[in-house]
Amino acid sequence: MNWLISTLITGIAVAIATTFDDNLYLTLFFGKVDRTFRPHHIVLGEYLGFTILVAVSLIGFLGGLIVSPVWIGLLGFLPVAIGISHLLNREEEQVVQTVSVPIKSTARPSRYRKKTLLETLLDPQTYRVSAVTIANGGNNIGIYVPLFASSTLPSLGVIVMVCYLTVGLWCFLSYHLTRQPMIAFVMAKYARKVFPFVLIWLGLSIVIENQSYQLFPVVSLLSR
């Protein structure tokens, strides 16, 4: 059970650190809901974009089945580099500018007709949300690849499950923050000060867990 607790802690940390910004642009999206752009477009679009990010990152897990864990652990320096980069960048970053583009459909029906799940998935409105999720998730891949590569199949399942639940949490919170969007901005402002340290901790834990420090002669001599 110790592995489950530690995996849950890691999963929660990485899920919040990599998806917190989603809460900000999702709040903006929910603020644009009208007759043609509905909440389910946003939720499905967010999950579709996130699923693509996870699918691409699974390359790391497959690589972990072939490459030695000692070498896989070197990928842990990617989250460290991302965390340090965020620490050095003191300027306020804007969420993907695509969010500010009005989302309107060319069709203007007199009344809204509830669409099927398939119709919603094929709707361009859904893909616009997915595009923002993917564009805003560049760092996600750099973090997920080394994490997935150093995970076993059970721990991978737990981490992915936690990430999907977290995405659902952001959708829920963003929907209710629509009337008070400033709260989301304040949350994002202070959260960005903490998350770089979370990423650095995550990356170093991957390096240590896989004993990748043994690849550095100086460190190996000092450890003897």
Automatic annotation (TrEMBL):
<feature type="transmembrane region" description="Helical">
    <location>
        <begin position="156"/>
        <end position="178"/>
    </location>
</feature>
<feature type="transmembrane region" description="Helical">
    <location>
        <begin position="41"/>
        <end position="63"/>
    </location>
</feature>
<keyword id="KW-0812">Transmembrane</keyword>
<dbReference type="Pfam" id="PF03596">
    <property type="entry name" value="Cad"/>
</dbReference>
<dbReference type="InterPro" id="IPR004676">
    <property type="entry name" value="Cd-R_transporter"/>
</dbReference>
<feature type="transmembrane region" description="Helical">
    <location>
        <begin position="190"/>
        <end position="208"/>
    </location>
</feature>
<keyword id="KW-1133">Transmembrane helix</keyword>
<protein>
    <submittedName>
        <fullName>Cadmium resistance transporter</fullName>
    </submittedName>
</protein>
<keyword id="KW-0472">Membrane</keyword>
